[in-house]
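Collaboration report, partner site 2.

Our partner group contributed sequences for two proteins of shared interest, and the home lab folded both. The records are reproduced in the order in which they were received, starting with the first partner submission.
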Amino acid sequence: MRRKLFLSLAVLGVLVMFFSACAYKLSLNGVSIPADMKTIDIQFFENNAQLAVPTLSQQFTEGLKNRIRTQTSLSILRGEADGVMSGAITGYSIAPVSVQATNSNTAPIAGASRLTITVSVKYVKYLYKDGKRTSDPDKILSFEESFTKSKDFTGDIASQEQNLILDINKQLTDDIFNRAFANW
């Protein structure tokens, strides 16, 4: 009796693994991507923020592509793809987060400041029926939302800005990647 129960559970386990392997392709880092998704189009993220940093769009777009390239087996291409990621950098601001006391004859100065970057992202993952991409909106997985990250710093922004941008871009691309590929 025990032997039959053990064999039944073993067969059930093999069937569960087989069917789940058909539905999803799992990467080593725990990210799950539908098995029918092979390509993605990462469009250029323009900088629409009031404060413009000339290299920000290129750095962010390339950072997002690199994250997808290194963490998945998806091919990045331009044009018709299984998924499309687009958007814009909508916010770039520097604001004081603490005030440093000064003598009574001068205005207070910032003891620390915060650089904040906001990115608006639209992600569409097309589904397939009978080997053809569907145009039915109910058959398309997607999201459209904004992601905001910030980093505090002290002193002059000019000497630290590029490193702060790199750190914030990494945080943003991690959040966007996880939202797109870890919520299936």
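Second partner submission, folded after the first:
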Amino acid sequence: MWDAVGISGNDGAVYEALVRRGQAEAGDIAGDLALPRGQVARVLRRIAERGLVTRLPGRPVRYTAVAPDLAAGSLIAERERDLVRLRAHAQRLTAEHAHRRDAGRCDPADLVEIIDGGVNVQNAFVRLQRAARKQIRTFDRPPYLENPVTGNPEQYHHASQRGLAYRVLYHQSALEIPGRMDDVWRRIQHGERARVSSHVPMKMVLCDNQRALLPVTSGGNAAEAAYLVHPSSMLDAFSELFEALWERAVPINRVGAGDDEKPPVDPELLGLLASGATDETIARVLGWSVRTVHRHVHRMMTHVGAETRFQAGMEAVRRGWA
């Protein structure tokens, strides 16, 4: 626990042992922790310098622990000051990097990084979300290395608190995974804006207009390596691609309780119908029989006066049902 503020495992253990004793010599703590006395003595001197313990006057040498809330508060404040200085330093370096790029001295090789290894790709994804200031835009499509119905929608709640918007364009096959539609509804309730399309060419994450992360390959273990694209004409093209596909995609919205006109069928069916999903796909996602899907689709078409399934889906979008 104490390593969060730069106190190592043994140092934290010695401090907590002293807290429990109140006052003690190095030998007392060594006996409690089964550590060499000389090592404990060195630890006590070290954590005294960090403000965790106080050496008492007299002989033999004895120490007393600083109250944990005071000790932790001091260390946390110190770490926060270090983080503020690091952010300021990073901003200065970023400004220098941007100036060099704007002056035309940027090596083209610096505009695209290759992130190798699944853990490194995931860490890069997390960093992009934390660095974003305005919005995260995402292409979401299979294959997935893990079950995608594991996300924490609370991230959208925290993101909205700092003014960060999420827009996600799902490939229609992503919604065929059992439980995925419920997961998407939860994300929408926490602020995500979601649309669905049959034309999502790849996975991609766009952080503001500053970075893009996309897999090196479009299939298989796609998350084992990725490109990290920095500001460039390539990044501009990815941004334009997202916006073009977003405009042509079908919104996924849940009908609110206060709407004047109610849809004649299940809202989840409407979203799938508008996305162009087949009856077999809809049946699999909703856990219905194909015959039940046919019956609901026919009722929908009759209600809106549509001659085709596609027309029914588009009419549902026009009326704000899907």
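Feedback sent to the partner group on the second submission included the following. The domain at 267-318 is CATH 1.10.10.10 (Arc Repressor Mutant, subunit A). DSSP finds twelve helices and eleven strands in the chain.
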